[in-house]
Design a protein that fits this description.
The protein is built from three helices and 45 strands. It has 503 residues and is mainly β. It folds into two domains: 93-288, no CATH class; 335-503, no CATH class. Strand 1 and strand 2 (10-12) form a beta hairpin.
């Protein structure tokens, strides 16, 4: 028996309750919106000071095995380090006149290397005694996929040790509904940008940040990324796509919040086999597949984000996938079964108009490259604003492959969502790859039906089932249940590949 625990209006899988992020998650989720425009602004969180007491550093002090943060003078630092303590607050700045010591750095990459060395010396591989916070002052931090320099970051920046916080200077302003506006409340920003556009080669994007868990080794569990502007270098938005802002694989306790991700990435936030909170981020102009890609097994909370004019899909959830990874990351070994627990709440997803299947929020029952993995998606999708998308929401079989199990189950509960101006329809449900139910059987890859799968949808009045489109062919042992009623085999759609049917 699987159970869900509700905590501050967020859906939490029981296994995730023991993961402490060590940081506040912001205000509780607000009620569903009544307007599609920001009506007021408020700041999300406060900025860290980048000016520590003169001659002082923070260390993780561990007397008798009890860890805590202690401020010490530089003259006593060596003794603390000799006893196994380590510096817990590192500062990065391009401003002149910075001290030359073990707490101040010119590049984020060097600060990360120092944090990794501290973790290795302390034997902290997947959890840590104290969080190490890297404070990054306002400015532009340019990186390269080639050879870095004293002032040039190396992309991707890989975090594969636990409990690291990367904290930039952007303090995200929120609108009256608690959604990210993309505006810095203080006017200050820490910008991560490549010196040349990030490449997309052999179906592999280059991320700016990777949170990686090495199989059987160290892991970037508990990574927090907040307060940054991410740029791909692929502008204008109509130009070629390349790169990712953040990629994760095999990590837990990830928090991505209060960031602005600008245009030209193939995927803005791509999280795989991870558990994460993705909160109050502003994403626009993603030029590839999905703005926010959430693939299990894992638990995800997506709350207070604003996604504008992006990829094929705004937010997509799948049980797992077997997509290619950068050379610095070990391939993912697929499990036999995979569960994705997801709470998608109080987000704005707008202008995803890619044809033929641009969509605001989508669940994929069978993961890409994982047709023999029996997947389960447990989704709460509530209080979101979906405006001017080709399809508002979609639940579909996704990526079945001939002569495989092609089995995936979806349990999705709606409530309080607002749909405005969906081009084709607000909700489309297909127990197959979406294109098969839209009458496009010759698409590539070949669209096929799922089999032995169950979709259970609770609409809570968001959509009248008589207005929804669906594709539920007979002979595949699939089950479709809507608001407690089993739906007979059949199909209903009014797809117009040229224009939009009247809604």
């Amino acid at each position: 028996m699987r159970t869900l625990t509700r905590c501050r209006n967020m859906l939490v899988h029981p296994r995730a309750l023991g993961v402490a992020l060590g940081v506040a998650l912001g205000a509780a989720v607000l009620a569903s919106c009544t307007s599609d425009l920001p009506t007021a602004f408020r700041a999300r969180g406060g900025a860290f000071s980048l000016a520590p007491a003169s001659g002082k550093v923070d260390v993780c002090h561990k007397p008798g095995g009890q860890a805590g943060i202690l401020e010490v003078g530089l003259d006593g630092l060596a003794d603390h380090l000799a006893h196994g303590d380590y510096i817990s607050t590192l500062l990065v700045s391009h401003e002149g006149g910075q001290p030359t010591d073990a707490a101040h750095f010119v590049t984020i990459s060097d600060a990360l290397a120092s944090a990794a060395a501290s973790r290795a010396a302390a034997g902290e591989t997947v959890a840590a005694a104290c969080r190490i916070t890297i404070l990054v002052s306002a400015g532009t931090y340019q990186g390269t996929v080639g050879t870095a320099s004293a002032t040039l970051e190396h992309f991707p920046m890989i975090v594969d040790v636990p409990d690291i916080t990367l904290h930039g200077a952007l303090v995200m302003a929120l609108d009256a509904h608690g959604r990210a506006t993309g505006v810095s409340a203080t006017g200050e920003e820490s910008v991560l940008t490549p010196n040349v556009p990030l490449p997309f080669v052999n179906q592999i994007s280059t991320p700016i940040i990777i949170a990686n868990g090495h199989p059987g080794g160290t892991a970037g569990n508990g990574l927090v990324v907040e307060g940054f502007v991410f740029q791909s270098g692929n502008l204008p938005i109509v130009g070629p796509a390349g790169g990712q802002a953040i990629l994760s694989l095999r990590v837990t306790g990830l928090a991505i919040r209060g960031n602005r991700v600008e245009g030209g990435f193939t995927e803005s936030i791509d999280l795989r086999a991870s558990s994460a909170d993705v909160i109050e981020n502003h994403l626009s102009g993603t030029a590839g597949t999905c703005d926010m890609c959430l693939a299990g097994p894992g638990t995800f909370n997506a709350n207070g984000n604003r996604l504008l004019a992006g990829g094929i899909v705004g937010i997509v959830v799948s049980p797992t996938n077997s997509l290619t990874v950068p050379p610095s990351v070990e391939p993912y070994v697929l499990p036999t079964t995979a569960d994705a627990w997801v709470d998608i709440r109080n987000n704005e997803v707008r202008d995803h108009l890619r044809t033929p299947v641009g969509v605001g929020i989508r669940t994929d029952a069978v993961g890409r490259g994982a047709p023999n993995v029996h997947g389960f998606i447990h989704a709460v999708v509530q209080d979101n604003l979906l405006v001017n998308n080709y399809f508002g929401m979609m639940a579909h079989g996704a990526f079945p492959v001939a002569n495989t199990d092609s089995r995936g189950d979806v349990d999705m509960t709606l409530g309080g969502n607002v749909f405005q101006g969906s081009c084709q329809t607000n909700l489309y449900v297909a127990l197959a790859r979406h294109l098969l139910g839209l009458g496009q059987p010759n698409a590539i890859p070949t669209p096929l039906p799922a089999q032995n799968s169950t979709f259970r949808l609770t609409l809570n009045g968001d959509v009248n089932w008589n207005d929804a489109w669906f594709y539920h062919p007979a002979g595949l042992n699939n089950t479709l249940v809507v608001d407690g009623t089993e739906i007979a085999n059949g199909t209903r759609q009014f797809y117009d590949p040229v224009g939009c049917p009247a809604n």
